[in-house]
Amino acid sequence: MNALVKSGKSLLPSGIIRVEGVFESGDAVNCLDSASNKLAKGIVNYSSNDIDKIKGKKTSAIETILGYKYSDGIIHRDNLVILS
Fold first, then answer.
1. What is the distance between the terminal CA atoms of the chain, rounded to a whole angstrom?
2. 51-77, pLDDT tens digit by residue?
3. How far apart, in Å, are the Cα atoms of 30 and each of 13, 25, 33, 64, 66?
4. For the chain, which residues make up each domain, given as ranges?
5. Which is deepest, 13, 57, 59, 74, by most CB within 10 Å?
6. What is the CA radius of gyration of the chain?
């Protein structure tokens, strides 16, 4: 999460350790740290089901795992708001 909060980066699959809830591409979701503190909110490029399959993986593996690739990022920096 340091990449999101301190470096202003997009959220990539490698930065995800867990997916909670059911959501679709285009939905706004919360990004939590390992202690379940809300750090950010953003619009996802993939569904919860797809993110669960690619979490922890490199962006280069997205297309191999899913059979398609919308974006390298789960949430692009332009679609992400850092919460204090």
1. 13
2. 999 999 999 999 999 999 999 999 999
3. 15, 14, 10, 27, 23
4. 2-82
5. 74
6. 12
Taking Cα atoms as reference points, which of 69, 74, 66 lies closest to residue 4? 74
Instruction: Classify residue 21 as left (phi > 0), alpha (psi -120 to 50) or beta.
Output: left
The pTM of the full predicted model, rounded to 2 decimals, is 0.90
pLDDT-above-90 percentage for the chain: 83
Query: What φ, ψ does residue 75 adopt, rounded to 5°?
Result: -130, 120
Which homologous superfamily is 2-82 in? PUA domain (2.30.130.10)
Polymer length of the chain: 84
Strand order, beta sheet including 28-32? 28-32, 38-43, 80-82
Burial-class residue 81 by CB neighbours within 10 Å (0-12, 13-18, 19+): exposed
